[in-house]
Amino acid sequence: MSLFLMAQSSIPIIGPIIELIAKVLGFVMEGVYMLFDAMGIASIGLAIIIFTIIVRVAMTPLFVKQQKFSRLNMVMSPELKEVQKKYQGKRDNASMVAMQAETKAIYQKYGTSPSGSCLQLLIQLPVLWAVYLIIRNIPSYVTKLQDLYLIIYNGLTTKNIDFILSRTVKADKIADLSDTDRMHTAINNMAVLNDNQWEVVGKAFENNGGSHEVFTDTLDQIHSANTFLGMDMSQSAWTLMKAGVVFAVALPIISAVVQFLSMRLSMARTQKLKSVTQQVTANQADPMQTSMKSMNFIMPIFSLWIGFTLPSGVALYWAIGSVVQVIIQILVNRHMDKIGLDAIIKKNQEKAEKKRKKKKNYISAQTVAQNAQFNTKKLSNANAQVKKANEAADSRAGKKFKEGSLAAKANLVNEFNEKGKK
User: Fold this and answer.
1) Which residues contact 186 (CB under 8 A, 6 or more apart)?
2) How many angstroms separate the CA atoms of 421 and 101, rounded?
3) What is the DSSP track for 313-339?
4) What's the rounded Cα separation, in Å, for the pair 33 and 138?
5) Taking the CB of residue 337, how many other CB atoms lie within 10 A of it?
6) Which of 48, 178, 269, 405 has the fewest CB atoms inside 10 Å of its own CB, making it the most exposed?
7) Which residues in 297-332 are b (16+ Cβ under 10 Å) and which e?
C-alpha cells in the first residue's frame, strides 16, 4: 500500500493534488488532536476516530450521487441492453452511429451520462490517498507530536539518521534529500519503530551526549500519545500480538466483518431494486452481481491484510471508516426509499433539462425521450430517407417536408444526431 501510494504521488499531476489535499486535511487532523490535547486527553487514536468521521461525512454527497446513479442504472439497463442487442454484430458506420445516438438518447432521457459515477470516484480517490498518507505519517501533520520526535532527531548523529532513513530511502538517494524531506522522512520512520529498535536509537542518542532522562521522558510522551485502548497506534496488529497484546487482533477482525456486512448490504439493496423495477429475469446474466459476489470476499480479506500488516492507526481508520460508511449507507438507502425511484428520476430529469436549456443547441426532454424510443427499422429507414431528402433539396432548394411525413421525421432524427455530435 505504501509503495502504491508513493508511486501515485510521483505522477506529475496526481502528486501535487494529493499533497495539497493532504495538507488541507492535515490541518483538520492537527486541529482535532490539539482539541483533545487541550482537554488533557491527547490521543492519536481519538484524533483518528474523529478525523475519520469528519472525512466520511464530508464525502457523503459524493456517495449519494453514486447511489442515485446506481438506481438510475438499474432502470436504464434493460433499454441499454436492447440497444446493444439490436446492433449486435453490426460494424458498419451507419449502425455504429445509430447505436451511439440511441444510447446517448437513453442517458439523456434519465438526465445522466455514461460517466455518471466516474467523477465521484475521481474526486474520492485522491482524497483517500491523501487521508492514508496523513494517517501513515501523522508526525508530519501534528506539530506537537513532531516536536517530540525532533528532540530525539536532533540528538542523533548523521550516521544514525542515515541508518533510520535507509528503512525507506535507497542509500544513494539519501544525500539528494533536502533538509526538510530528510527530517520528515526520518521522523516518519521513527514513528513506526518497535521497542527493540527504540532501544538501539536510545543508545545512539546517549552515546552522542544526549541525556538518558530526556530520551526516556520524550519516548514516554510519544508512547502515551500513540497508545489507544492499550494498543500502540504506530505498530501493526501482528507486531503487537507478538509483543503479547493479544486483543490487537480485534481491529483487523472488526474491519473485515464490517466490510463483509457492507458488501452484503449492497447486494441486498441491488436485489431489492431489481425485484422492484423488474430489471433482470431469471435467465439473464448479471455481470454486476457476479462482480459484487467476488468483492464480498475480496474486501474483507483486504481489510484483514491492512489490519495485520500496517500500523494500527491505519487499521483504526479503516475499521472506523467502514463502520461510518455502513451507517451512512443505511441512512441514504432509507432516505432514497422514502423519496421513491420515480421522484429521483424526475428530479434528475429536471436538473438535466435546466443544463440543456443553457446550451446553444437546446433539445427538449420530450424530443430526447422520443428519440430514445426509435427502433432499428425506423432509424435505418429514416437515415435512408434523410439522404434522399438531402439530394432532393439540392435541386429543389427551399421546399419543406410535408408535416407528419416520414421525411419530416427522418429530418428530425438527422438534426438530433448532428446536434449530438456537437
Assistant:
1) 153, 161, 164, 165
2) 9
3) HHHHHHHHHHHHHHHHHHHHHHHHHHH
4) 10
5) 13
6) 178
7) eebbebbbebbbebbbbbbbbbbbbbbbbbebbeeb
CA–CA separation, 76 and 279 (whole Å)? 9
Radius of gyration for the chain, computed over Cα atoms and rounded to the nearest angstrom = 30
Buried b (16+ CB within 10 A) or exposed e, 260-283: bebbeebeebbeebbeeeebbeee
- Per residue in 29-48, pLDDT (tens digit) is 999 999 999 998 888 999 99
Output the furthest CA–CA distance in the chain (Å, rounded): 101
**Residues with Cβ < 8 Å from 155, sequence gap 6 or more?**
205, 208, 209, 210, 214, 215
Distance of alpha carbon 68 from alpha carbon 330, whole angstroms: 14
Query: Distance between CA atoms of 124 and 61, rounded to whole angstroms?
Result: 11
The upper half-sphere exposure of residue 157, i.e. CA atoms within 13 Å in the direction of its Cβ, equals: 8
pLDDT tens per residue across span 183-229: 999 999 998 888 888 999 999 999 988 899 999 999 999 999 999 98
Average pLDDT, integer, range 7-13: 45
Q: Give the three cell numbers for residue 334.
A: 432509507
Per-domain residue ranges for the chain? 1-141+340-354, 142-228, 232-316, 374-421
Rounded Cα distance between 387 and 390, Å, is 5
Q: Give the count of beta carbons closer than 10 Å to the beta carbon of residue 396.
A: 8
